[in-house]
Amino acid sequence: MALSRVPGDEDLFVGGIFTLRRKTALENTGITHIVSVLKYDFKDFEDWEKYEHLSIEVDDVDDENLLADFERTGKFIEGALKSGGGVLVHCAMGKSRSVTVVIAYLLRQNPQHTVASALSLIRESRPIAEPNDGFMAQLELYKEMGCPRDIDGQPTYQRWLYQREVSLALAAGMAPDRVRFEDEEVQDAQGGGGKELELRCRKCRRTLATTPYLITHLPNATAPTQTSMLSHPTTRPNLPPPPTHTACTHHFLHPLSWMRPALEQGILNGRLECPNPKCEAQIGRYAWQGMRCSCGVWVCPAFSLQKGRIDEITKRGSSSNVRAPGKDALGAANVRALDEATAEGLGIRLPPGMRGKENL
User: How far is residue 252's CA from residue 199's CA, in Å, rounded to a whole number?
Assistant: First the structure.
């Protein structure tokens, strides 16, 4: 199974490195362009100058970044086929790296394809096709991003790169060298509408986080186990607010700029304090190596706000409301702030002179 033609109307082939020594087969199939997806010195191959060649030097390991080259390989293959040429994409065995590049090309050219359907198509002629798990995850991310022509410019891709940095640092037992604060980064486009959750310090009412920066997790039905782990998806920052679960005593967030004094100390874990210099109440904790929520889910890395130290305000819609402690526990000044926030959440415009009054 040295050379396999991908089913379809294009002269696109997948193979292993030994295919390059079969000069007759290459000529008979009309190969004019070759994509090599491995680290290799090709100086010993005869008639190498006959082919247009693109070399992508990667290893067949889960943590190799092949996603960064999908546009480069896709553009090369597309140009070769449009010029009437034939393209061979090969790696060592024609099983993982080369198949990954071909799947990426199929996704790029055919929006109706999924990663699974593209792989199934290739397996019709090459049953051994099997990208490693890391490459499969990268293909899913590529599809999720819409197969962009500018991969580097995608916030989703940048978050993915950053998560890799964090994982490498944690593997070495250290906090990452840099912190990506989500509220300082370009966000993915997202539709409006629906309810939004705002989290505020219970003591001073300072806003701490809103819906785009919350991380959802679902409580486990069973008792907590070491396998109940969620490595929070930095590639999906704009998720709906976590549902209210009595089992959960924390909200988990992406890193935000007000956490800078704590996170840039380079310590693996510590406390989070309200950024209001007149308050500085302890409102949560962070742990780069992760922490388990009271519901049993392990979140890694974890930046959490303790529900008992914050208020949750739901905005938009007639059902907007404020979840807060009783007025006796707030004090007069905070009661006024809470009442104003409640009125605004309900869409009520306060008349002139009403702000700052004791009661609505």
Answer: 11
Catalytic annotation, residues: 91
- 324 secondary structure, DSSP code: -
Burial pattern 294-320, b for ≥16 Cβ within 10 A else e, equals ebbbbbbbbbbbebebbbbbbbeeeeb
17-61 tens-digit pLDDT = 999 888 889 999 999 999 999 998 887 777 788 899 999 999 999
Please state the φ and ψ torsions of residue 120, each to the nearest 5 degrees. Answer: -60, -40
Strands 291-292 and 321-323: unpaired
Full 3-state SS string of 89-122: EECCCCCCHHHHHHHHHHHHHCCCCCHHHHHHHH
| Residue-range domains of the chain with CATH | 3-146 (3.90.190.10), 153-323 (no CATH)
Helix (H) or strand (E) holding 306: strand 302-306
pTM of the model: 0.75
Query: C-alpha angle with apex 282: 278 to 287, nearest 5 degrees?
Result: 135
